[in-house]
């Protein structure tokens, strides 16, 4: 049977060898000299060979046996390997290293994630990959375990029973149109007022499906999934669309956002994980950080 080494015993051996004495090694280890002697004796019993020559009363130095000289670099190698793994796992547990992958709907990825990640990562060496897409794509990435967790909305929580959803943000649906559009001067809109105009559907239009405004979707001829393309079409005056407030580019000087008051449709966005899977330490730490930072 192969010997099973204890890291503590290996450290004692290296200290005695390098410091040339049991007494100084005991001081370094904050142990008594008999305790160090017992530790070395147990290590020698496991190896089946003596590590140190019998002490000469005329010298205070402790000398290695030929076997001990052969074992010393290997003991150092074992200690170094142990310490590297221990440090890596400690850094991982403290979310200071590793690779974190998350997917988010664009509205949260652009509005909230930059500041959250900046404050969370700090000066750590944590690698982060962020994928932004619509809620359906984010949920699919979570399901396929392409990411540690997602930030999205659940359109039907019963159909997504294998996922765990923690709500974090909430906004409401409004109408987006060019500033010169007839609807732009309104302070709030009824869905019936949108009927005369060309409606461009997008990934968030599903939020209207279970509302009284659902007929608008059936009569819509156009669908654009990419937000950059959608904004370009709106700016060009191609039509109007509905968007959640957080998805509206507030720095855009060409477009207006008018709240839709009938129906009043709210969107909940939160953290989505698989119910039966644990998160990595960095992912769990980021989830905890987001929850601690969420709006009150």
What are the main properties of this structure?
single chain; 296 residues; alpha/beta; Arc Repressor Mutant, subunit A; D-Maltodextrin-Binding Protein, domain 2; two-stranded parallel ribbon; 10 helices; rod-shaped
Condensed summary:
With 296 residues, the chain is α/β, with parallel strands linked by helices. Helix content is 39%, strand content 20%. Helix 8 (214-218) links the parallel strand 6 (200-201) and strand 7 (222-223).
Describe the structure.
- With 296 residues, the protein is α/β, with parallel strands linked by helices.
- The protein folds into two domains: 7-93, Winged helix-like DNA-binding domain superfamily/Winged helix DNA-binding domain (Arc Repressor Mutant, subunit A), CATH 1.10.10; 102-269, 3-Layer(aba) Sandwich (D-Maltodextrin-Binding Protein, domain 2), CATH 3.40.190.290.
- 39% of the residues lie in helices and 20% in strands.
- The chain is built from ten helices and ten strands.
- The strands form two sheets. Strands 1, 2, 3, 4, 5, 8, 9 and 10 form an eight-stranded mixed sheet that branches. A two-stranded parallel ribbon has the order 6-7.
- Strand 6, helix 8 and strand 7 form a beta-alpha-beta unit.
- The two termini are 61 Å apart.
- The model has no long low-confidence stretch (mean pLDDT 90).
- It comes from Zobellella aerophila.
- Belongs to the LysR transcriptional regulatory family.
